[in-house]
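Protocol step 4 of 5: obtain the predicted structure for the target chain.
Materials: sequence only (see below). No template structures provided, no constraints applied. The aim of this step is simply to have a reference model before the mutagenesis design in step 5. Sequence pasted as it appears in the construct record:
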Amino acid sequence: PRQVRRMASMPSQVRAASTESRDTRVLSPTTGVLERRFIESGEHVARGAQLFTLVRTDALELAATIPARYASNVRTGQLARFTADGRTIEGRVVRVSPTIDPATRSITVYVQVANPSGTLKGGTFVSGRVVGRSIPQALVIPGAAIRQAENGSPYVYTIEGETVAQKEVQIGVVDDATGIVEITSGLEEGDRVIVGNVGTLGRGMQVRVVDRDDRPAVR
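Step 4 output (structure tokens):
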């Protein structure tokens, strides 16, 4: 009887040893590069202790903050463009924080960025913006070309031949980051507009375009 009990206990000991051996193997749920190691081989660790820091290099996640006033315009799936180390990189919004930080009045947006070559490093600081919408075949001009009449109506000065003309325009989307303004009516593709302050201008004035820097000069 003692021998039977001894033999019966052996399978349990084998199973326990197998479980203990299996638990010593640490498997990562994803591929990546070990960024930091907190333990040494053979060291006893407590349950739940941190062992390693693993960085997934083929796809990074960007945590960015945007002003709370834009919170309702940001959704998952939107395109994000940002600059890192002098390069323009694109990603997609995967998560948007459901709450606004009361201290900064901003929300956190998480953007997934493909990084197959591993050139973009974790912890890199970047700047950019989320693209709310894209307008195909939009007619755009520099915002510095827009002027306002006394009644508040926007207009631009154009060059027709060698004469200054004044055209009222309708403004669509304004991109403050790039200084570009969409024109929905009043101009056509190929029109030449006068940008910035180049002196006193008026309808019917004669101008000459200086080829050196492509700026019009009153004559």
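Step 4 remarks: Residues 215-219 have pLDDT under 50 and may be disordered. The chain is about 10% helix and 40% strand.
Proceed to step 5.
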